[in-house]
Structure formats: C-alpha cells, structure tokens
Amino acid sequence: METTFSQRVITAALSIPVGSVSTYGDIARVCGGGGQAARSISGILRRAQKNGAKNIPWHRIIYSNGRVWKNKQYDALRTKLYAKEKIDIDEKGYVIDFALKRYQF
C-alpha cells in the first residue's frame, strides 16, 4: 500500500528514539520531500495531533543548526523532557553534541 508524504512524516517523527533529535529537513528528506518540504513538517504534525495522533515527540525535532524551538508556553516542559532524555541544551538554545545526538534515519 502506498503512503502519503504526510503519513511518512508522522511515522518518521514517531520513530525518533528517546535521547536523540532530528531536524525538520532530515524528516522531509527521509520521507521523500524536496528542498522546501522541511517547512511543511510542523503543519503536518500539528494536523495529525489535532486528528488524534498521540505522542508526537515535538521536543526531538529541531532546526538544522542544532537549535531547539523556543516558546515560553512550552519551555518548562521541554526543558524537563530534555533533562529526562539526557539531551543537553546550552544557554543559547543549541543541543550540545548535536552531531552525536542527531538521529540517522
């Protein structure tokens, strides 16, 4: 059975292991998306969550330069999740040892 790009994105996001991170671009590429596809990842996952997808690991999906997404509403929760998963974030919001923590699909 053929899957859609959106279905592949959801599957890829859910496959990122505890203690690892991936980027929007990594997910787009592994799912067969082109150069601009990384911009659609958040929207796809947001719609999936609204439609009942559970356990999307938002905190494990970061920018291509290793920076985490910051938002005052979610910072406390994300900080707690990063600590629990031993993903260290520096004072500027970048994953320490990004290359080692980056999940290779």
Helix and strand layout, with pairings?
Blueprint: H1 5-14, E1 22-23, H2 24-30, H3 41-50, E2 61-62, H4 75-84, H5 98-101
Parallel strand pairs: 1-2
Helix pairs in contact: 1-3
Describe the structure.
The chain has one domain: Orthogonal Bundle (Arc Repressor Mutant, subunit A), CATH 1.10.10. It contains five helices and two strands, in the order αβααβαα. The protein has helices at residues 5-14, 24-30, 41-50, 75-84, 98-101, and strands at residues 22-23, 61-62. It has a two-stranded parallel sheet with strand order 1-2. The two termini are 21 Å apart.
Which key terms come to mind for this protein?
Arc Repressor Mutant, subunit A; mainly alpha; two-stranded parallel ribbon; globular; 105 residues
Strand sequence of the main sheet, in spatial order? 1-2
Radius of gyration: 13 Å
The CATH superfamily turns out to be: Winged helix-like DNA-binding domain superfamily/Winged helix DNA-binding domain
Query: In percent terms, what proportion of residues is strand?
Result: under 5%
> How many structurally independent domains?
1
Number of strands: 2
Please give the alpha-carbon distance between the first and last residues: 21 Å
Describe the largest sheet: 2 strands, parallel
Number of helices: 5
- Unreliable residue runs: none
- Helix percentage range: 25-40%
- Under CATH, the topology can be stated as Arc Repressor Mutant, subunit A
Average per-residue pLDDT, rounded, comes to 95
Task: Write a brief caption for the model.
The chain is 39% helix and 4% strand. The protein is mainly α and 105 residues long.
